[in-house]
Every structure is written in structure tokens, then in C-alpha cells.
UniProtKB/TrEMBL annotation:
<keyword id="KW-1133">Transmembrane helix</keyword>
<keyword id="KW-0812">Transmembrane</keyword>
<keyword id="KW-0472">Membrane</keyword>
<protein>
    <recommendedName>
        <fullName>Quinate 5-dehydrogenase</fullName>
    </recommendedName>
</protein>
<feature type="transmembrane region" description="Helical">
    <location>
        <begin position="162"/>
        <end position="182"/>
    </location>
</feature>
Length: 303
């Protein structure tokens, strides 16, 4: 049996373990959250290093893309270096191949007609291929990196502007404490005045896409008629979205026992299956393997 462990900087309340058969191979897939504690994540990785087949790193990326270059996030370096024997991945490779393909899949199979729709991508820095896919499918974009990640009341409305700003800002962003950039806690802002600057973009958008923790932290009580395209989702999240009258939920990663894990888990599964480190695999090889496994997006229509 292959064992994959996702060590996440996110909440331990979302911990989960499943067993799955993938290409005839039995897998134990587990997610362990550390509630924002990077030192604890490092300790867990060190304790399991060499004892599992692949690690996923959740709740934090190793790299961000800007100006045609990948920049390593400063606080991710000690986590990455904690794994000496077992391969550790953060999902970037899958994000940059699979997520754009998912948009094409949804369009070609007449699941969503993207043409003319407004898509809010809450944070495109770590999901720029998803944003590209939505744009190429015919969406008008609202890229919320400045507002959702940095709290700056500015909405980016074109990929050209996004890439220009990313080239300027990413070298500085990677030096910030990750707690400033990513909503790892489960608390929502309570002051409606603070939330209104986010809510109006949810109301404008037909499609809300990106990391679910960003989406969840700021989303309004009603999502009636909206489509969410995201990643990590629990059974509790699904019930919450039904209460908010969401029209359709798409997760770019497949469902295992009612749970959609992050892209880091999918990437770790690929590494465990092949016995190769991610840097030893070409983009074409990753795409081919995903197709062979027949990983498809999860689509649920509620209303």
C-alpha cells in the first residue's frame, strides 16, 4: 500500500483520511493540519520522512509565479527542507496543467457555458492558469489578489495588468509572513462594513473561482445562482453551500469519500505512483498520467 500524507498549515478541524484504489494500487491518503503552526508541520514531516511514499504541502505554496519566473516563498523553505528522503510537493505542477484543462473539459462537455460570464478569481497568484483558462473560455475577469490577499481595495480586471503587477510585487510578497497572505484560520470577519467591500464582487460575479479558504472567508450569506470552481472541500462545506443556495459546485480535484483534497495531494499521488520526483517528470508526462488515472473534476448541481 502507498501512503500519501498532506501536511497543511491550515486548520486541524479539516483533517481526514481515506483509502482509495488508483490504477490498481491501494492508497492511504491523509491530511494533517497544524492550525498555522509551521514548526509543528516541520516536526510532522521529519517524524514521517522515509516512512511514507510522498508528502503534500497544504496551506502554503513553495513558489509563486511572477514576471516569467518562479519565486520561492521564504517561510516555505524550512518546510520543504524538512523532507530529506520522501518527495514533497505543493500542487503547483497540477495547478499549472490540470486546472486549465478542467475549464476546457467543462466547456466542451456543455457543463458550463463560460462565454460572457464574469469570473471572480479570488487570488490568481497561485492559480494563474485557472484564470487563463477562464479568460480563454470567454469570461470577463475580476482578479482579487490585491483585495483578498493584501486588503488593498483594488480589483484587477485583465491578465495583462495582473502579470505586470505580479512581476513587480512577487519578489516582495515572498518575504512577507505567510499568515498575512493566506486565511488559515476558520474565523470570519464579523463587521459587515468590512465584508461589504468583498460582497459586492461576489454579487457581480457569475463564477467564483480559486482557493476555497479565500472564498469561504469572505463569502456572503446568499450565493443564489452562483457557480464556485475551487479545490479542497469537505462534506460540511458542501452542506454550507447548499444553505447559501449555491447553484453549482465544481472541484478541480476528484472526490474521495465525499472529500475533495487539494492539488498537493493529487500531485503526491502521481509521485507515489511513478516513484519519480516531480522535477523528474515533464509537463506532458503529468498530463498523460492524469488522463490515464481518469481524474475528472467533481461537479454537483444543487439548484
Amino acid at each position: 500500500m502507498k501512503r500519501v500524507v498532506s501536511v497543511s498549515i491550515g486548520s486541524s478541524k479539516r483533517n481526514h483520511k481515506v483509502f482509495a484504489n488508483i490504477k490498481g494500487v491501494e492508497f492511504e491518503i491523509e491530511r494533517i493540519g497544524t492550525d498555522g503552526d509551521i514548526k509543528k508541520a516541520i516536526e510532522i514531516i521529519k517524524s514521517l520522512d522515509g516512512k511514507v511514499d510522498a508528502f503534500g504541502m497544504g496551506g502554503i505554496d513553495i513558489v509563486l509565479y511572477g514576471g516569467g519566473k518562479n519565486y520561492v516563498i521564504r517561510e516555505a523553505i524550512p518546510i520543504k527542507n524538512a523532507a530529506k528522503k520522501t518527495p514533497l510537493v505543493d500542487g503547483t505542477g497540477v495547478k499549472n496543467t490540470f486546472e486549465k484543462w478542467v475549464i476546457k473539459y467543462l466547456q466542451e462537455n456543455n457543463i458550463i457555458d463560460f462565454k460572457g460570464k464574469t469570473a471572480l478569481v479570488v487570488c490568481a497568484l497561485d492559480r494563474y492558469k485557472l484564470a487563463e483558462g477562464l479568460y480563454e473560455a470567454g469570461c470577463k475577469l475580476l482578479l482579487g489578489d490585491a483585495l483578498f490577499a493584501l486588503g488593498i481595495p483594488f480589483m484587477i480586471k485583465s491578465l495583462k495588468t495582473f502579470y505586470y503587477l505580479a512581476a513587480l510585487l512577487v519578489p516582495f510578497i515572498i518575504k512577507l509572513p505567510f499568515s498575512m497572505l493566506y486565511p488559515n484560520d476558520d474565523k470570519k470577519e464579523q463587521d459587515p462594513k468590512n465584508l461589504q467591500k468583498y460582497w459586492k464582487y461576489y454579487e457581480i460575479a457569475d463564477i467564483i473561482a480559486g482557493d476555497y479558504k479565500y472564498i469561504q472567508k469572505y463569502m456572503p450569506d446568499s450565493l443564489e445562482g452562483k457557480i464556485i470552481i475551487t479545490n479542497t472541500i469537505t462534506k460540511e462545506d458542501v452542506e454550507d453551500l447548499k444553505v447559501r443556495k449555491l447553484k453549482m459546485l465544481v472541484t478541480t480535484t476528484p472526490e474521495f469519500d465525499g472529500r475533495s483534497f487539494g492539488t498537493n495531494v493529487v500531485e503526491a499521488i502521481l509521485v507515489a505512483l511513478t516513484g519519480k520526483r516531480l522535477e523528474e517528470m515533464s509537463q506532458q508526462e503529468v498530463e498523460k498520467l492524469i488522463k490515464e488515472i481518469d481524474f475528472k473534476p467533481r461537479v454537483e448541481i444543487f439548484y
